[in-house]
Amino acid sequence: MRTLIFIATGLLLMGIAMRLASPGRRRAVMGVFSVGWLLAVLWNLRTGMSHGYSLQEELPIQAGIYLVPVAAGWWWAWKTRQH
Q1: Whole-angstrom distance, CA of residue 81 vs CA of residue 62
Q2: Where do transmembrane segments lie in this chain (predicted)?
Q3: What pLDDT was estimated at residue 81?
């Protein structure tokens, strides 16, 4: 359940950032979001490992938490790019 909450939060934050950005600035916004979301996921990884989970257990979950919102945001930025 925690994983789904993190993914939904990432998608929500990405959506808000992308809606507030003009189409010409969406790639820059996604660059900033990607770094910020990576920091949040690393914090979540550290939290999971401090509760007894191994890196091997946590890494695939954290990869999904990171990749779903970031991939969706980059796809959105690519689809709405200005020519």
Answers
A1: 29
A2: 29-47, 59-78
A3: 77
| Stretches in the chain below the pLDDT threshold 70 | 82-83
Cα 46 from Cα 55, distance rounded (Å): 9
CA dihedral of residues 4, 77, 41, 62 (deg, nearest 10): 60
Query: Letter for the amino acid at 73?
Result: G
State residue 75's pLDDT score: 96
* Residue 62 tokens, joined: 């954290």
Token pair recorded at residue 48: 């999971």
Residue 22 CA neighbour count, 13 Å, CB half: 3
Q: How far is CA 11 from CA 4, 52, 55, 76, in A?
A: 10, 27, 24, 12
